[in-house]
Amino acid sequence: MHNSKEIHPNVHWVGASDRRLDRFENMFPLTDGVAYNSYLIMDEKTCLMDTVDTDVSDVFIDNVLHVLNGRPLDYLVIHHMEPDHCSNIQAIARLFPDVKLVGNAKTFTFLEQFYPMDLSNSYHTVKEKDVLDLGEHSLSFYLTPMVHWPEVMMSYEPKTKTLFTADAFGTFGAHNGNLFADEMDYKHTLLDEARRYYINIVGRFGTNVQNAFKKFSNLEIEMIAPLHGPIYRTKEDIEFIMGKYQTWSTYQPEEDGVVLVYSTMYGNTELAMNFLASELADLGVKDIKMYDVSKTDASYIVSDMHRFSNTVFGLVTYNTDLYLKMAALIDEAVMTKFSNRNISYVVNMSWGSKALVSAKEKFEKSKNLVEVGEPLTIKSSLKDNQTDELKSLAIAIANSIQKVEA
Ligand code: FEO
After folding, report:
1. What is the CATH number of the domain that holds 318?
2. Is 152 in the pocket of ligand 1 (CB under 6 A)?
3. pTM higher than 0.85 for the full model?
4. What is the pLDDT of residues 293-352, one digit of tens each?
């Protein structure tokens, strides 16, 4: 049973959604599933853009066969070789033995690493700005390495003014019928997931995103067609998501606000963080997010750390070092190049004091983290005589907001 949609005359979406997958890349939790976009241009030549993951193969193949309506497939463009988009390349090649696989040299290296079928006779290798003529439509290729794999490329179709962007501008979340961002309350329903997707999947490669931006800065873009999530086709939506990518890829905070993330074994560090949050609220700080590092997956916390100007870490020492989940969170933040932010510490120890030293060592790899206020140190639990210290830290944090410069 097919479920495809024509998104522009003779350009069809032939992808699929998966709401049963628990974790993207077997790591990042999916609460609303994920969409795998694939596009099929019907012209003098027929051209499929990418495939989908194995879990949704059946509907994808039905979509492709339905749109082709008996015609053969001439080209399969492979923008990105991660298996969530490539798991059906062999199936397509079996259905259409004469199909040409369009990729760059690195594409085919990865293809041979992942899949056993010898498809070398089908290779159509492209380089930067090569053009694939399909009839009225054509595709120009732009190599965009490390957004977020080495072989990634994007393509521009001038008749529809569409940029096919691989994973860039993607988001977690299955499609709910509508495919276009302007058909949904995107900013409220999907922006947080678009940020979590970008920060955790692509975030480390901001410089490469900036390099990609330079390549298509002179293109007239009326539609952005990513491999995940909604398609952007209004000027407002295109400018909005590109603006977000500009902020995210240059590691600038989107908003003033404070993330308080803590490790707590018996609730004492949590209590101290609650008092601090309350003091911040009394000082007029509006956007305060609190996370127990053991309760919330790190991908959500790291995403909000990139979103806001300030983060306070509630550390405990565990087995003479950082509490393991806090250590993992900080490692993940450093990997995503968390930088240009204000950070502060609340440190709880009963008999060991290594947590703060370890956290600071980890953050030595990050750029332009400004430590705000004196770390508030507590011995097992916050005491009444530490109220002044707590208030001083809260005042320093409140005063620091809007004071980070890259
Ligand atoms: Fe959606 Fe990097 O694959």
Report:
1. 3.40.50.360
2. no
3. yes
4. 999 999 999 999 999 999 999 999 999 999 999 999 999 999 999 999 999 999 999 988
The answer to whether position 111 is within a domain reads yes
Give the number of the atom of ligand 1 that is nearest the alpha carbon of residue 149. 2
Tell whether 153 and 291 lie within a shared domain: no
Q: Are 119 and 98 in contact (CB under 8 A)?
A: no
167 lines ligand 1 (CB under 6 A): yes
Q: How far is it, in rounded angstroms, from Cα 375 to Cα 231?
A: 45
Report the pLDDT value the prediction gives residue 25, as an integer from 0 to 100. 97
Q: What are the phi and psi torsion angles at 272 (to 5°)? A: -60, -40
End-to-end CA distance of the chain: 52
DSSP string, 98-137: TPEEEE-HHHHHHHHHH--S--GGGEEE--TT-EEE-SS-
CA 12/CA 236 separation, integer angstroms: 23
List helix spans (H) across 17-88. Answer: 57-68, 83-86
Q: What does the block give as tokens for 308? A: 């806001």
Evaluate: CB of 202 within 6 angstroms of ligand 1.
no
Q: Tell me, yes or no, whether 241 lies in a domain.
A: yes
Instruction: Round to whole Å and give the CA distance between 332 and 376.
Output: 24
Please give the distance, rounded to the nearest whole angstrom, from the Cα atom of residue 168 to the centre of ligand 1.
9
* Residue with CA closest to ligand 1 atom 1: 167
- Domain housing 362: 257-399
Return the CA Rg of the chain.
24
Contact 304 CB / ligand 1 (< 6 Å): no
Other C-beta atoms closer than 10 Å to the C-beta of 341 total 23
* Atom 2 of ligand 1: nearest residue by CA position: 82
pLDDT tens per residue across span 226-277 = 999 999 999 999 999 999 999 999 999 999 999 999 999 999 999 999 999 9
